[in-house]
């Protein structure tokens, strides 16, 4: 058993007969009244995001998890297949376990949280950012840069991201996996 002082990002807890992963949290100490912790949790089974407030000192049931490095192999439409980089065992996961499946490129190494009680995969954590090639985008219109203008671009994985006007087809860009947004162009 843990308490609210143990809450941190990535902690997996059992709540309402389901396992949730803490995405965001904030300890709040108001001038009047007791302290509390405001959390945003994501269900590892359904992917549903839930906001909840725990009073200070509230007991929570944490779930012991192990992290393992897995390499993304391929997607067969229904399942995403991964291989453990240490012992080469393979697992397959449904799309709802992944946060940003459209940013996964074959060969990408991800971290998978595994419940130690039943060895079931809980969630997949992508790297903070991934480098992907732009496969299609309209050319930028000259003189259309009075504001911070952007245009849609299709990446090699099929994902669509808004990029600045100077990005062309064939450019490699860095995409933040948490928000799925353009970060920078990669110079070669």
TrEMBL record:
Belongs to the elongation factor P family. InterPro entries: Elong-fact-P_C, NA-bd_OB-fold, Rib_uL2_dom2, Transl_elong_fac_P/YeiP, Transl_elong_KOW-like, Transl_elong_P/YeiP_cen, Transl_elong_P/YeiP_CS, Transl_elongation_fac_P. HAMAP family: EF_P. One of its GO terms (cellular component) is cytosol. Keywords: Cytoplasm, Elongation factor, Protein biosynthesis. It comes from Gillisia limnaea (strain DSM 15749 / LMG 21470 / R-8282). Residues 67-122 form the Translation elongation factor P/YeiP central domain. CDD domains: S1_EF-P_repeat_1, S1_EF-P_repeat_2. Involved in peptide bond synthesis. Stimulates efficient translation and peptide-bond synthesis on native or reconstituted 70S ribosomes in vitro. Probably functions indirectly by altering the affinity of the ribosome for aminoacyl-tRNA, thus increasing their reactivity as acceptors for peptidyl transferase. One of its GO terms (biological process) is peptide biosynthetic process. GO terms for molecular function: translation elongation factor activity. It is found in: Cytoplasm. This is Elongation factor P. Residues 130-185 form the Elongation factor P C-terminal domain. The keyword Cytoplasm applies. Pathway: Protein biosynthesis; polypeptide chain elongation. It comes from the Bacteria.
């Amino acid at each position: 058993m843990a308490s609210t002082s143990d809450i941190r990002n990535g902690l997996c807890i059992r709540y309402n007969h389901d396992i949730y992963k803490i995405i965001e949290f904030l300890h709040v100490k108001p001038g009047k009244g007791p302290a509390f912790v405001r959390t945003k949790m994501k269900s590892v089974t359904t992917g549903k995001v839930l906001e909840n407030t725990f009073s200070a000192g509230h007991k929570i049931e944490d779930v012991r998890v192990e992290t393992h490095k897995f390499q993304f192999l391929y997607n067969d439409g229904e399942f995403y297949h991964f291989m453990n980089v240490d012992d080469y065992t393979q697992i397959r996961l449904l799309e709802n376990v992944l946060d940003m499946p459209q940013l996964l490129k074959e060969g990408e190494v991800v971290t998978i949280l595994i419940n130690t009680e039943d060895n079931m995969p809980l969630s997949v954590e992508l790297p903070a950012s991934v480098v992907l090639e732009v496969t299609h985008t309209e050319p930028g219109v000259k003189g259309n840069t009075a504001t911070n203008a952007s245009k849609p671009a299709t990446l090699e994985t099929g994902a669509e991201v808004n990029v600045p006007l100077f990005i062309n087809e064939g450019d490699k860009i860095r995409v933040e996996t948490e928000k799925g947004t353009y970060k920078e162009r990669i110079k070669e």
